[in-house]
Design brief:
It is a single chain. This protein has 189 residues and is an alpha+beta fold. It has helices at 10-23, 27-46, 48-55, 61-74, 79-90, 97-111, 127-141, 172-187; strands at residues 114-121, 144-151, 159-163, 166-169. A 4-stranded mixed sheet has the order 2-1-3-4, with helices on both faces. Strand 3 (159-163) and strand 4 form a beta hairpin.
Length: 189
């Protein structure tokens, strides 16, 4: 779905995300919108012809909005979500959908005092480790944690925690790199 299309600024995508967020009457509606946009994104990722159709400058906006109406019916998307997607098409912002969804999900997390944390580890974490780490992080950040794990063998050992632009590096490779930087600094004295 990405590719050589236009890149939209965070300012633009966050405005669209906030507009959709504010159009929801309550928390349940906001979660529904989130699920429905994800459903559409999944359909686009599974059907490359459909994604190409929506991202093609050769297909006029009216044809795209008609297909969105049909997709909305087929996928049982909320009418507000379909209308929102049509606005994106009409304003030539549909290619920013992925970033808009990320911005929207950030608004949901903020409303619920949740934050997304990505833990990269050299080896897969056990369910017990995930549970324990989640508890520790919830205490540390004083919020609910949406923990996502990724295996990263290049870390050699340990883990890295990524959240809100922060990196907590407890990996062996991070320790070795830090040591190398310190040694370089002392050799220049």
């Amino acid at each position: 779905m990405s590719g050589s299309g236009p890149v939209f600024s965070q300012r633009i995508t966050s405005r669209y995300a906030r507009a959709l967020f504010q159009s929801a009457s309550d928390k349940a509606a906001r979660k529904t919108y989130d699920k429905h946009i994800e459903t559409l994104q999944q359909a686009l990722s599974e059907n490359t012809n459909l994604a190409t159709f929506f991202h093609s400058p050769l297909v006029d906006r009216e044809a795209k909005t008609q297909v969105l109406t049909q997709l909305g019916e087929r996928l049982s998307l909320d009418s507000v979500v379909v209308s929102f997607l049509k606005v994106l098409v009409m304003n030539k912002r549909f290619e920013g959908l992925s970033q808009i969804l990320q911005d929207y999900q950030a608004l949901l997390r903020e409303e619920e005092n949740r934050q997304e944390v990505i833990v990269k580890s050299a080896t897969p974490l056990t369910p017990t480790q995930v549970k324990d780490l989640t508890k520790v992080l919830e205490t540390h950040f004083q919020s609910k944690i949406d923990l996502k794990t990724e295996e990263a063998p290049e870390l050699i050992g340990g883990f890295q925690i990524h959240t809100q632009g922060q990196l907590i590096d407890g990996s062996l490779i991070g320790t070795l790199q830090s040591l190398a930087r310190n040694l370089e600094g002392t050799s220049q004295l």
